[in-house]
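Can't paste images in this forum, so I'm doing it all in text. The chain is below; anyone willing to post the predicted structure tokens underneath?
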Amino acid sequence: MLIGSLLWASPVSGWRGTLVCRDPGLGRRWANGYSEEKPLSVPRDAPFQLETCPLTAVDALVLRFFLEYQWFVDFAVYSGGVYVFTEAYYYVLGPAKETNIAVFWCLLTIAFSIKMFLMVTRLYFSTEEGGERSVCLTFAFLFLLLAMLVQVVQEDTLELGLEPGLASMTQNLEPLLKTQGWDWALPLAKLAIRIGLAFVGSMLGAFLTFPGLRLAQTHLDALTMSEDRPTLQFFLHISFLSPLIILWLWTKPIARDFLHQAPPGEMPFSLLSDSAFDSLRLWVLVALCLLRLAVTRPHLQAYLCLAKARVEQLRREAGRIEAREIQRRVVRVYCYVTVVSLQYLTPLIFTLSCTLLLKTLGGYSWGPGPIPVPSRTPSSTHDRLGGLGDDEAQQTAALIAGALGSLLTPLFLRAILTFLIWWTAACQLLSSLFGLYFQRHLAGS
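Text version of the structure:
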């Protein structure tokens, strides 16, 4: 996706990696036996042109975070391949007691996505100038308030499944707490989970702030570059509005209830069953992720074309400018392209991995048929403990595994994963809309 994009080269040095331009025949002064080299300067409105050349793997090796970017994308591809193979294996053979290894791969992908978020966001906190740190903290506080507000919305309006999920978890947690005499801690456990979700939402909001702002800029530039390609513009618009579609899928009055209602004037019947709607929602999520992946190249190419826009902006300014500064303006775009790629792909991979986990751990199906949701009770845990030997380590490990198995019910996991998917889309939509407003009304002022 990154390799092969057109790169704009510096008009002075002719090579995009050169940061210093020196000409031994120009700008040299001699005085008292010492030589003093004066930086080469050119008029800002000089009629120079940038050359284009394809970005190769050799060029990308010198970029910051390129190795991390390449490793992360390769791992995500392998994880997707393992998941597809595992789903086919379970569909054909249908093993009942085998561990689904695809869940482990998807969990690793989510962990590495969070690592990429932290790595990129740390760049903004390492700079003392520019205000990026203040922007991240401001949006983190804003999203913290919004995450707390979202959790109090009724299930009849926003069907994230938080109430049924917490009820399922606390139903199995209550007997475990009573055996230890900690039944008073049950309300605190529910409160801690909700506060934890709010802080996770705040962190995701901070992580997705600058990716959303960057997406708005590259979206506008990609639309400008594809004026003669209406089909590509259509897909770019759908890709940009994909977070809004995700938000619509979990808004019950205009999604599930709307598809359950019959056309006016006819006999009452359901257009889609609950299981069919859940399967359709999974397929729409996967299709939107693949669509955004398909338009990655136009977005990255639009970003690389910022070098040309910055040079053309010089022609509208008066005075002279150092050749070294021109090179820096061009090379800075090139050196930052891997960070932009991570900002674009990491939310996509994170959402897709959560979607695949939602299908597997949440008890959903790719087809319209219903899937029985397995239930675990603490009594089964104590029964397993009764068959163990006297080894205390074995008993402790079995107790912990049984407790976790009874607490992490499909309804609870479904609620957590649904919240992550929905909240990621909400953060992307809000930050990208703010980026559109900034680009349209504030960037030129």
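Confidence is low (pLDDT under 50) at residues 10-36, 372-390. The first helix runs from residue 57 to 60.
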